[in-house]
Amino acid sequence: MTYRIAVLPGDGIGAEIVPQALRVLEAVGAKYGLSFTFTEGLIGGIAIDETGQPLPQETLELCRNSDAILLGAIGGPKWDNLPTHLRPEVGALLPLRKALGLYANIRPCRTYDALADASTLKKEVLAGTDMVIIRELTGGLYFGSKGRTDVDGVQQAWDTMIYSTPEIERIVRLAFETARHRRKKLCSVDKANVLESSRLWRETVNRLAPEYPDIAVTHMYVDNAAMQLIRNPGQFDVVVTENTFGDILSDQASMLSASLGMLASASLGGRVGLYEPAHGSAPDIAGQKKANPIATILSAAMMLEYSFNRVAEARAIEAAIEAVLAKGFRTGDIMEAGKRLVNTEEMTDRVLEELA
C-alpha cells in the first residue's frame, strides 16, 4: 500500500528537519515493505512571500487529499509585524486545524536515561516521567471573538473563551481512551475556581467519568499543574486540558525531555492527521545544520502509529533514537560534556544506521 504524505516544511529550520524525517520514513518503508509518496506544499511565511497568503488554497486541498501531513515549523521575525490574520501562526495553523477538524493535540513526553544529565532539573526528579498531554485544539481563546476599541483615548482589547459541551466531551473521551491504554490515570487541568468555561469543563469530566470506572480521575488547577510538572512530573500519566493551558503546559513539559527538539506531536480528529515537532522555526540557527531532527523523526513515528496503524515500525524508530542517544551522539540543544556533537544530517545518519 502507498501512503500519500503532504509535506509542509514551512519556515526556518523546517526546511532542514523535515527532509531528515522523510529519509527515516523511506528507510522504514524499504525495511518493512511500505511505500510513500511525498508531495510538498507551501505554508507560513514562505507561502506569504510567494502567494500573499499563509495558507494557500492549493496547500489546503493537498492536505485534504492526503493520508497524513508532516509539518516542519512556521513563522519568524520577518512576518511578526503583519496584520494578525496574516501572521503565519494565526493565518495558517489555526485555519488548517479548523478546516481538517483537528481538535486534539497529542504530545508524549518521556525522559530518556541517556539524557538524564541534559535537563536543567535533577535526574531524581525526572525519573520515571512518561506522560501524554492532550490539548483541545480548535476552541477557547484562540478561536473566540476578539477585538479592540478606544474608550476615551484608552485602548481596550478582549479575547473570548468559549467552550461547548460537545467540544469538551470529544476531547475528554479521547483522553479517557488514551489513559485506558496506558497507566489508567487521567488528570484534567482547568481553572474552575475562576473561569465559567472551566467549571463546565470540570462538570463534563465528572459526568463522563462513571463510563470509565477503570480510570482514576483527578482535577488540578492550571497554576498548580505548572508547579507539579516541575516538582513531581512522574505523577502524571494522561493530562487533558483546554487550548491555551495546553499550549503553555506542553511547552513547559518539553523541558522534562531536555529540549523542545525532542518533543513530537500529533493533531488528530479528522480523516487526515497532522504531525509536527513541538518546537518553532528557530530562525537564529536556520541554515546552519544545528537543528535537532529527533522531534520531527518522532513525529513521523507517531504518523506511522496513529494514522497508519504501523505500531511495530513506529517502535523501531523510537528504539533507534534511544540507541543513538545511548551511544552519546548529541545535537547542540542536548549537548553535554563528554558526548559527541553532530549536526542535523549526521544525527539522522546515526538513526538510519540503527534502523538498518
Automatic annotation (TrEMBL):
HAMAP family for the chain: LeuB_type1
What's its catalytic activity? (2R,3S)-3-isopropylmalate + NAD(+) = 4-methyl-2-oxopentanoate + CO2 + NADH
Task performed by this protein: Catalyzes the oxidation of 3-carboxy-2-hydroxy-4-methylpentanoate (3-isopropylmalate) to 3-carboxy-4-methyl-2-oxopentanoate. The product decarboxylates to 4-methyl-2 oxopentanoate.
What is the scientific name of the source organism? Heliobacterium modesticaldum (strain ATCC 51547 / Ice1)
Entry GO CC: cytosol
Family label: Belongs to the isocitrate and isopropylmalate dehydrogenases family. LeuB type 1 subfamily.
Q: Per UniProt, what is one GO molecular function of this protein?
A: metal ion binding
UniProt xrefs under InterPro entries: IsoPropMal-DH-like_dom (IPR024084), Isopropylmalate_DH (IPR004429)
Pathway in which this enzyme or protein is active: Amino-acid biosynthesis; L-leucine biosynthesis; L-leucine from 3-methyl-2-oxobutanoate: step 3/4
Q: Mainly localized where? A: cytoplasm
Required cofactors, per record?
Mg(2+); Mn(2+)
Give GO BP annotations, semicolon-separated.
L-leucine biosynthetic process
Per UniProt, Mg(2+) binds at 223, 247, 251
Q: How is the cofactor bound?
A: Binds 1 Mg(2+) or Mn(2+) ion per subunit.
Q: Does the keyword DNA repair apply?
A: no
Subcellular localization, per the record? Cytoplasm
Keywords attached to this Swiss-Prot or TrEMBL record, sorted alphabetically, are: Amino-acid biosynthesis, Branched-chain amino acid biosynthesis, Cytoplasm, Leucine biosynthesis, Magnesium, Manganese, Metal-binding, NAD, Oxidoreductase
Q: Where is this site: Important for catalysis?
A: 142, 191
Q: Which EC numbers characterise this protein's activity in its record? A: 1.1.1.85
Under which name does UniProt file this protein? Answer: 3-isopropylmalate dehydrogenase
Q: How does it assemble?
A: Homodimer.
- Binding-site list for substrate: 97, 107, 135, 223
* Top-level class of the enzyme under EC nomenclature: oxidoreductase
